[in-house]
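Appendix B, record 7
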Amino acid sequence: MPTFDSNGVAIDYDVEGDGPPIVLVHGFASNAQGIWRAPGIIKALVDSGRRVITLDCRGHGKSGKPHDPEDYAGTAMPDDVIALMDHLDVRVADLWGYSMGGIFAATLLVNHPERFRSVILSGIGDALLASGRSRVQSERIAAALETDGGANAGDATARNFRVFAERSGNDLAALGAMQKSTRNGFDPAKLTQTKLPVLILVGDKDTLIVSADKLAAAIPRAEYAKVPGDHLTAVVAPEFKAAGLAFLAKQSPVVG
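Structure tokens (predicted):
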């Protein structure tokens, strides 16, 4: 896979297929392979006539992994998506993000609506309306990632993130730095002003996000779909892929 420089960090990306472009953004402690390729989502999108653009977010996969929280601060991570689009001379694309990638997709929806035709926010819930995860929770996750006994952390959410990150072969120091950074790059109130078509797509047993009902109700024109699975398994459910493709076919159809 090729790389490009985004503000001093090497970002690994891939492009497959021809047709209208769609950018896919993965979740925390995962990568493009785990979220998009393994479940067959990339193949399905390419087969539907789309040009699929994926990236490993900074700190993940084959991309650069800074250990300084400042390298992840503000809108640095969603800005990598815009930088990649510029690098590829893509003016407008569809956008699909999962979990952390869903937060980035919401950030881009608010900050750069002119760059997108439609947006799928998946694996995220009502906490997005309050700017996402609390600072205290992020610090607990960072501590679990960075300490030797992190896999035995008392906080269940932090412990689960550590276990998943280790199992996926991540750079724990990079992920810890990310959690310690201040990533508050958009005004969630502006989600209520978006004019783009949006799909909220979640697992029906996703206890990490709890609910996305208020989020779906707050966004104009938002469609809302629940598929079988929890935060880890929903992405591999056939219904997840089908819901995303059906939304795109309706809101951003391939012509010709």
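Remarks on this record: The longest helix spans residues 238-251. The chain has one domain: 3-129+186-251.
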